[in-house]
Amino acid sequence: MTTTTLLEQLIQSLRCLPGVGQKSAQRMAFHLLERDRNGGRLLAQALSDAMARIGHCRRCRDFCEAELCAVCASASRDTQLLCVLESPADRLALEQATSYRGLYFVLQGRLSPLDGLGPRELGMDLLTERLASGEVSELIIATNPTVEGEATAHYLAQLARRHGVKPSRLAHGLPLGGELEYTDRGTLAHAFGSRQEVLPHH
Fold first, then answer.
1. What pLDDT is stored for residue 173 in this prediction?
2. pLDDT single digits (tens) 81-129
3. Top-confidence residue, 29 or 177
4. Is pLDDT at 189 greater than 60 in this prediction?
5. Residues facing residue 78 across a β-bridge
6. pTM to 2 decimals?
7. Integer CA distances (angstroms), 31 to 20, 21, 80, in order
8. Least confident interval from 60-64, 74-78, 127-131, 179-183
9. In whole numbers, what is the pLDDT of the chain averaged over residues?
10. Is the torsion defined by CA of 148, 151, 155, 156 positive or negative?
11. Which of 22, 35, 98, 163 has an alpha carbon within 20 to 30 A of 132's alpha carbon?
């Protein structure tokens, strides 16, 4: 009975991953047990270590093990440019596709009152502090071109202007309703290179 219970627990645990249903979870569980027990042990250890030791950078909110991530800790980045993104996956995509040398701020979400995600949950207080410091001259808004992403961009542009910081938004090439994480490098690089200033609504 114990074996069955453990197997069921393993299958149920794997279902917490995005896009993994009952069948996929079963296939993964059977694969680890039949063919790759060592891989399973390494996976278990890596998951355990990651859950225990990965936190958030105190400056940009990206995932990292130390107090500051490698980008924020680097002395060679341009502190006048601050790029705001929704997720660590978006930051990684931009870092790989562009030659951007400024700093980042990761919201870990987007404004979505229905999901209980307001300014406080997205670290807007921390972002406000950075804008108020006078160090940032341009806030590059790289939220996704979705309804919530656009609402978040509008909020961020107003916040930037309130502190005398120029807001700009990623331009051409990004499909409406798309996600930065899944956009090809060429499109992403073009959109980033041709960003435009966000003008106030009249």
1. 67
2. 999 999 999 999 999 988 899 999 999 999 998 888 888 899 999 999 9
3. 29
4. yes
5. 102
6. 0.78
7. 15, 15, 50
8. 179-183
9. 90
10. positive
11. 98
Quote the longest CA-to-CA distance of the chain.
69
Q: Burial level of 170, CB count in 10 A (0-12/13-18/19+)? A: buried
The answer to whether residues 51 and 65 touch, using CB atoms and an 8 Å cutoff, is no
Give the pLDDT of residue 1. 46
Contact in structure between 148 and 176 (CB atoms under 8 Å): no
What is the C-alpha separation between 39 and 97, in angstroms, rounded? Answer: 31
d(CA 8, CA 173): 45
Closest-CA residue to 170 (of 152, 188, 146): 188
Vertex 192: Cα angle to 99 and 55 (nearest 5): 70
Assigned token pair, 190: 């073009």
Q: Domains of the chain, with CATH numbers?
A: 2-53 (1.10.8.420), 67-197 (3.40.1360.10)
Tokens encoding 129: 């502090």
| Bridge partners for 106 per DSSP | 85
Q: How far apart are CA 101 and CA 121, in angstroms?
A: 27
- Residue 65 class from Cβ within 10 Å (0-12 exposed, 13-18 middle, 19+ buried)? exposed
Average pLDDT over residues 151-160: 93
- The letter for the amino acid at 16 is C
**Residue 79 token pair:** 């502190």
